[in-house]
Every structure is written in C-alpha cells, then in structure tokens.
Please model this.
Amino acid sequence: MDLKILGWNSFFAENFVAFEENCLHPARIFLIQKDTYWLFTERGELKAKLAGKIHYEAKSKGDFPAVGDWVAISTGSDSSLAVIQSILPRLSSFSRKAAGGRKRKSGGAVAEQVIAANIDTIFVVAGLDWDFNLRRLERYLTLIYNSGADPVIVLNKADLCPESDEKVTQVESVAFGVPIHVVSAKTGQGLDEFAGYLQGGKTVALVGSSGVGKSSIINGLLGEERQEVKPLRGSVGKGIHTTTRRELIFVPTGGIIMDNPGMREIQLWGGEEDLEGTFRDIEEIALQCRFNDCRHESEPDCAVLAAIENNALDPARYNSYLKLKRELWYLEERKRKPAGRIEKEKWERYFKK
Ligand SMILES: Nc1nc2c(ncn2[C@@H]2O[C@H](COP(=O)(O)OP(=O)(O)OP(=O)(O)O)[C@@H](O)[C@H]2O)c(=O)[nH]1
Ligand SMILES: [Mg+2]
Ligand SMILES: [Zn+2]
Model:
C-alpha cells in the first residue's frame, strides 16, 4: 500500500526519521481488538502487539495507541506478528474524558480516552427525525474544536423530514461557519457531497448517537453493505449499539472513513478555550462586558446578560455555555487535584461567605 493513500505526510515523515535509522517501519492502526492491533503497512495488513515499554511508560489511557495512530513497528523474521515500538505524535486527537468516573468517588485521576487519532474531518451525524438536539451538537463541537480536526454537521434521514430548512437554520444558529449537509443514506440524497472531504490520504470519522445512520451512510459511500445496520423493526433510539467497534475503512473513490459506535456519554475533554469556537457569538458579545474576566453570571454591566434581556441571545444556549464552561473548569481542577479536595474546598469557600 502507498503510505500517502493511508494519510502519510511530511509531518509524520519528519517524526519518523529517528525510527527509520533503527530499522523500524511505519504503520497505521485501523482496528484494535483487545490486545491486538491491526495495521495498514506498505506491505499490506499486519497484526501487532504492543511493546512492553509502552505499557510501562504509559501514564494514562491516552498514552496507548488509538485507531488512526501512526506507529513505528518492528517485524520479526517470519514477519507475521509485528511489535509496536512507538507512537508518532498526533496531528489531531479526538478525545473525551474516560467514562466510569462515578465509581471512583474518592477521586482517582481523570483520564483522557483518545477515540480517534489523526482525523482530518469529523462529521457529527444527527437524525432529522427523533435525534435532534442542539445542546448535544454544542457538546460535540466543543470536543472537536479540542481535537484539531475540522467539524462538519450531517443531518441524515432527509427522506423522513421534508421540512429540513427550519432545522438547518436552527443548526446554523449554534454552529458558526461549520458546513452543514442534509443527506439521506436511504435515498442517496447528498452523499456525493462527501467526496470533497474524502480525497486521497484524507481521513474522516463519523460520530453521533446510536441509530442516526452512521453505518448506513458508510455503506452508501462504499456502494456495498459492509457495515451492519440496525434492522428496521429494532427499537431505534433505545441505546443499543449496532456498531461495536471503531475501524478505518478505505473508500474506493478515495479517502478513509471511520465508523464508530454511537456515543452515549459525551464527557468533555479539553480546556475552556475550546468553547471559543463553539460559542463564538457569546464570546463576541462578551467583548462588551465591563470586566475582562466577567463570568457573565451576576457582574455589573455584563453584555451577555444584557443580550439575554434583549432577546438577542437564547437563554438555553447561554445555560449550555455555562454548563460546559463549568464542566471544563472542573476537569482542569481534577487534572491537578483529586475530586475529594475540590469538593472540600468548594464547601470551605461556601462557609466562608
Ligand atoms: N428512513 C431512513 N432511515 C435510515 C436512514 N439512514 C439510516 N436509516 C435507518 O436507521 C437505522 C439505524 O441506522 P444505522 O446505520 O445502524 O445507525 P448507526 O448510527 O450506525 O447506529 P450505531 O451503529 O448503533 O451507532 C437503520 O434501521 C437504518 O436503516 C435514512 O437516511 N433514512
Ligand atoms: Mg453503526
Ligand atoms: Zn459578562
């Protein structure tokens, strides 16, 4: 396989020089099954294990390879089982906070879960039927702005919703400058618009709730029923995932596409600065606040609160902004301190008032 078609570029080549001297080969992970890593390489597909060194040195989940990662591998004499010796730096990484924090009440460290690495464009797929939620879109966009990939919004199932214009307008009001495509995996409407993102060497990923039609869109683009799709009579929207693995798939007309299981928990990972992209309108209004560090909660001469008063800003969007901001703040704090201490300090502050 030609590495360029796999997404190889000068960034990875520069970072690979040192490994090349050690006779290692470049490879890209397209699937992970437990401890087995499936790779695309110049010589075709290979199976690999992780070198013990990566296990020892990993400080958190985020230090392990993810689907989409470029890695440096050594191949044994029989070259059937390769060993991943190192992960190349990522051009982008789509991450969320690892789920399962609730059990660790005592406050373990927060961990990053890298869902996909080196993705150029992330498509947030929403259904024009039941799965339509602007607040969830804001959450996805915030994660994508943190990832370094470009966001695109795909509104699927256009065949079920003849009045899509109004929904497009609603989406436009929360996603500034983000391309929006109205498609139907069922009729094929709009699928040709994907071609622009899927040129050779480009990797795109589809994310969104279960049942919105991610796998159906991929099948439509491939022209074959490669991905399993939820049977029609199945209870759509009950949170049962049809797709259970993340995988990179070659599109015959060019590019690589990644299918994902539906995401139930979209726990933010990133910093408050990621909100700037998602809430450009609010950030712009905030330039008029009296205080530079205005939190837009109760400060005098707050332009954001004034905008809500004047019906220039939707209170639901404002609340979503505050909620995501608090979440990111809390995440920052937890990266530095255990959860128990943050709670304690919060109460101490409360009683001092
Ligand atoms: N009417 C209509 N139905 C669609 C369309 N796209 C997908 N569906 C149906 O929606 C259901 C869910 O589609 P999937 O492709 O399995 O959804 P998914 O997003 O991959 O779901 P998970 O793999 O669980 O995350 C299936 O019954 C599809 O046939 C569409 O454009 N129009
Ligand atoms: Mg699927
Ligand atoms: Zn303000």
